[in-house]
């Protein structure tokens, strides 16, 4: 009992400490040891944010739980993107595109591949609801095409950009699609997204009470504030490290997406190890849908105040990676069961994406 109380106290202490640190460094030039402390606090805030989101998610049950996680992660991602865009030099900005595309590739190949590998090694073959996963994949493919592919082919504005009306339409369409997806996932066809019954469910663990869930919700909000603010403080250091390493600027988007999705990846892999691959897919693919379906409208609204040109269209290399990811993911989920072979294919594509990010 004492061990549990101590663990809970640490999870409750970290969010206010991060907020206090943010208040101490905000508006000041931070260097050297201070940046290291801010970086550690930033990572800690992200991990603790998703931990508290998991507690709230456990309280409300599936599939509402994975939805809360996806929205929390997306809120962090949007905050990071906007903060880094405001601190970047004026000019065309590809940060939103790079981060959203990186999140898409990390989730659909890295997280899905790792979950299938772990589930396949431990349970030989994993099963899931085809109806729920294919509905998620159809939504994801559509919003990804709207946000990342079509801007490269429109003619109303130069380059891989949308004009103002086009951006407003794409953002609205993405938001409508995401709202419809949430309605189907949580109300109309909720059973398509519930985990299949397994032997692991014979003795389900008791969920947290309403008071614990309420405290975790408050801690989650504090973490979101801390993550966004600390990222603003840390952003010059991230840009400097990327420049010194001689890596493309797109690597910044990859770093942001990896940072935000790391705790959620751990949750998805834990579910896969317990033969809850449906929960893993709800977390992974659902967060990808939220990442694009909510990030693009948010960035579209923010672009009213941001003077930078928002570059959204992918280059041909990345379009090929996006296309093969959609095709392979469709082939993976179509049978309703998968093995470690499909996991290895997804992880290979993810490896190609990481390599080409650093060596384009």
TrEMBL record:
Subcellular localization(s) per the UniProt record: Membrane
Domain of life: Bacteria
Keyword Transmembrane listed: yes
Major localization listed first in the record, in broad terms: membrane
Domain Sodium/calcium exchanger membrane region, first and last residues per copy: 33-186, 216-358
Record-level GO cellular component terms: plasma membrane
Transmembrane portions of the chain: 7-26, 32-52, 64-88, 100-121, 133-154, 166-184, 212-231, 237-262, 283-306, 318-336, 343-359
Membrane topology: Multi-pass membrane protein
A GO MF label: potassium:proton antiporter activity
Coiled-coil regions, chain positions: none
Transmembrane helix is among the record's keywords: yes
Matches recorded under Pfam families: Na_Ca_ex
PANTHER family: SODIUM-POTASSIUM/PROTON ANTIPORTER CHAA, SODIUM-POTASSIUM_PROTON ANTIPORTER CHAA
Stated name of the protein: Ionic transporter y4hA
Encoding gene per record: chaA
């Amino acid at each position: 009992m004492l061990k549990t109380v101590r663990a809970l106290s640490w999870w409750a202490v970290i969010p206010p400490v991060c907020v206090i640190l943010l208040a101490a460094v905000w508006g000041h030039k931070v260097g050297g040891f201070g940046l290291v402390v801010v970086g550690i606090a930033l990572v800690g805030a992200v991990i603790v944010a998703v931990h508290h989101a998991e507690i709230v998610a456990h309280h409300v049950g599936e599939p509402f739980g994975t939805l809360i996680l996806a929205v929390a992660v997306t809120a962090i991602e949007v905050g990071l993107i906007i903060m880094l865009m405001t601190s970047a030099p004026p000019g065309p900005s590809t940060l939103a595109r790079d981060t959203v595309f990186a999140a898409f590739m990390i989730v659909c190949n890295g997280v899905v591949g790792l979950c299938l590998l772990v589930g396949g090694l431990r349970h030989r073959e994993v099963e899931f609801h085809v109806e729920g996963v294919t509905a998620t994949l159809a939504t994801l493919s559509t919003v990804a095409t709207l946000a990342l592919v079509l801007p490269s082919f429109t003619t109303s504005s130069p380059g891989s950009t949308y004009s103002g009306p086009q951006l407003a339409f794409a953002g609205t369409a993405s938001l409508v699609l995401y709202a419809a997806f949430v309605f189907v996932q949580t109300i109309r066809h909720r059973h398509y997204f519930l985990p299949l019954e397994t032997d692991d469910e014979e003795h389900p663990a008791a969920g947290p009470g309403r008071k614990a869930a309420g405290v975790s919700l408050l801690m989650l909000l504090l973490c979101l504030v801390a993550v966004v603010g600390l990222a603003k403080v840390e952003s010059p250091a991230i840009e400097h490290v990327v420049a010194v390493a001689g890596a493309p600027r797109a690597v910044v988007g990859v770093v942001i997406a990896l940072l935000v999705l790391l705790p959620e990846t751990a949750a998805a892999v834990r579910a896969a190890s317990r033969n809850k691959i449906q929960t893993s897919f709800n977390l992974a693919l659902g967060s990808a849908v939220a990442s694009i379906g909510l990030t693009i409208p948010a960035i579209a609204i923010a672009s009213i105040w941001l003077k930078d040109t928002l570059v959204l269209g992918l280059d041909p290399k990345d379009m090929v990676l996006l296309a093969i990811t959609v095709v392979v993911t469709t082939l993976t989920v179509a049978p309703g069961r998968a093995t470690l072979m499909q996991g290895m294919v997804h992880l290979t594509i993810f490896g190609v994406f990481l390599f080409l990010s650093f060596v384009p």
